[in-house]
Design brief:
285 residues; mainly alpha; 14 helices; elongated
Length: 285
């Protein structure tokens, strides 16, 4: 929702200011310039990425309009789920989780927490690491190193869309100059025309530079920054799980293990100690 608001604000202020100075909006509508800019931007993205990476970028770019940040409620749900998971380990032993981690889609425990169950990356992260502990009784410090490797790999992959789109944004001002130069070339063919006709042609050519800069700094670069922010949020979510899981495997009580996880949550979304205590005791998400 915020991205739509941002686009409206950018366009409203830029076009509104232009009109306040007596500008004719019609001159800004140059389909040929948009074809040059849009085609060059898409083409450069295709050239810069292997097919697998390109499909990954296209798929994950939709998160700009669909993804939500991890809120306090989401983190409370996560910590409640981890508390129940750790409590089961403490009461029944690690082997009691075997059915849950082998078939998480059918697990009554995971399905009690719908937001977490839909997060395939986090769900796989929890299940895979518990599988390792069940199979090999891996010490806590070695498990932590293993999880750090996985988190780093996931983070690097998740940044590919942001970095790729940002490179396109960096190139757009240059593509705008290309469009402007082509427009000037066409304008020179009208050098024998009246000044009004020639001036209109030159103005239309300069729209290419304007659109390239506006698209770069007004839309594309901010979208890349938004994707990077979402990626960092996903990484933080996994780090919270890691901290709590390491504490559990290291012998901490379930309540203390999730407290370790709570401390890893950013302050703006971190539930208080009392909120966490009340939630895990009541079993509410």
């Amino acid at each position: 929702m915020t991205i739509i608001i941002g686009i409206v604000v950018v366009l409203g202020c830029v076009i509104g200011g232009f009109m306040m100075e007596g500008g004719n909006v019609h001159i800004l509508f140059q389909p040929a310039e948009l074809v040059i800019l849009g085609g060059a931007a898409v083409g450069s993205l295709i050239v810069s990425l292997p097919m697998k990476s390109l499909m990954y970028v296209l798929k994950n770019s939709s998160r700009l309009f669909t993804a939500k940040e991890h809120s306090k409620a989401v983190y409370l749900e996560l910590l409640t789920m981890l508390f129940q998971l750790f409590s089961k380990v403490k009461k029944e032993g690690l082997i009691s989780l075997e059915a849950d981690v082998e078939n998480p889609e059918k697990s009554p425990l995971f399905n009690k927490f719908p937001h977490f169950a839909k997060n395939r990356t986090a769900l796989t992260f929890v299940c895979d690491n518990f599988k390792v502990v069940i199979a090999s009784a891996l010490p806590a410090h070695e498990l932590e190193n293993l999880m750090d490797i996985e988190i780093e790999a996931n983070h690097e992959e998740s940044l590919v869309p942001a970095h790729s789109i940002n490179r396109v944004g960096d190139a757009l001002p240059g593509f705008g100059i290309v469009a402007a130069v082509l427009g000037v070339v066409l304008a020179m063919g009208k050098i024998d025309q009246p000044p009004a006709v020639l001036g209109h042609a030159v103005g239309a050519a300069l729209v290419g530079t304007f659109l390239g800069i506006l698209m770069s700094y007004g839309f594309v670069a901010p979208m890349a920054a938004n994707l990077e922010h979402l990626s960092n949020g996903d990484t933080t979510f996994l780090k919270v799980i890691k901290v709590a899981l390491v504490a559990c495997i290291d012998g901490a009580a379930p309540q203390m293990a999730v407290e370790f996880g709570r401390r890893a949550i950013p302050a703006s979304e971190r539930p208080t100690f009392s909120e966490l205590e009340q939630t895990v005791k009541s079993g509410k998400k």
